[in-house]
Amino acid sequence: MNFVAGYLLIITKDEEKSFWLMDALIGRILPDYYSPAMMGLKMDQEVLGELVKLKIPRVWQVMAEHNVMWTLVVSRWFICLYIDILPVETVLRIWDCLFYEGSKILFRVALTLIHHHQAVIEQAQSLPDICQAFKQITQGPFVEDCHAFMQKIFTEPGSLSMATLTKLRTTCRGRVAEGEP
């Protein structure tokens, strides 16, 4: 949370505006992400896994074959809202969309990164290879050209409705609460 709060202060240069933006994030956009149990974060990582299974099944298969939990490779993406993951200009554009459209933007970004670099992930032969691939896909020209990247997040993953996310969240919340992967 400190990364997010710090970015908000740097961007707004106003403590009260930063406070209200943080309030919107914690209370409305990302509920339970920063709670002690982090249920919202855990649930959304599982939701991403389900979305990958539906939209990019070969990547999901690689993850399943190597028993890689999504939390291992994407928890930092979601909890830090891509700070220190993607270039600053790209992060700020993502945040604009996050405040306007809500949490589904986090999934659009993740799905775009994974889909665009599917071949890199599919080449992984082990857990360390997969972890390295997920680090690699967040760097380079694809994410540095924020304008092109932002266009891609609205086209590459295809349709992603809030109804679909709500349904998946309900399913995944139950699994996370029971302690299942």
From TrEMBL:
Rab-GAP TBC domain location, by residue?
Answer: 1-102
InterPro entries associated with the record: Rab-GAP-TBC_dom, Rab-GAP_TBC_sf, Rab_GAP_TBC_domain
Entry keywords, A to Z: GTPase activation
Q: Does the keyword Transmembrane apply?
A: no
One Pfam match: RabGAP-TBC
Q: So which domain of life are we looking at?
A: Eukaryota
* Reported function: May act as a GTPase-activating protein for Rab family protein(s).
Q: Which PANTHER family match?
A: GROWTH HORMONE-REGULATED TBC PROTEIN 1, RAB GTPASE-ACTIVATING PROTEIN 1-LIKE
Q: What is this protein called?
A: Growth hormone-regulated TBC protein 1-A
Tell me what organism the protein belongs to: Ameca splendens
Upper taxonomic classification of the species? Answer: Eukaryota, Metazoa, Chordata, Craniata, Vertebrata
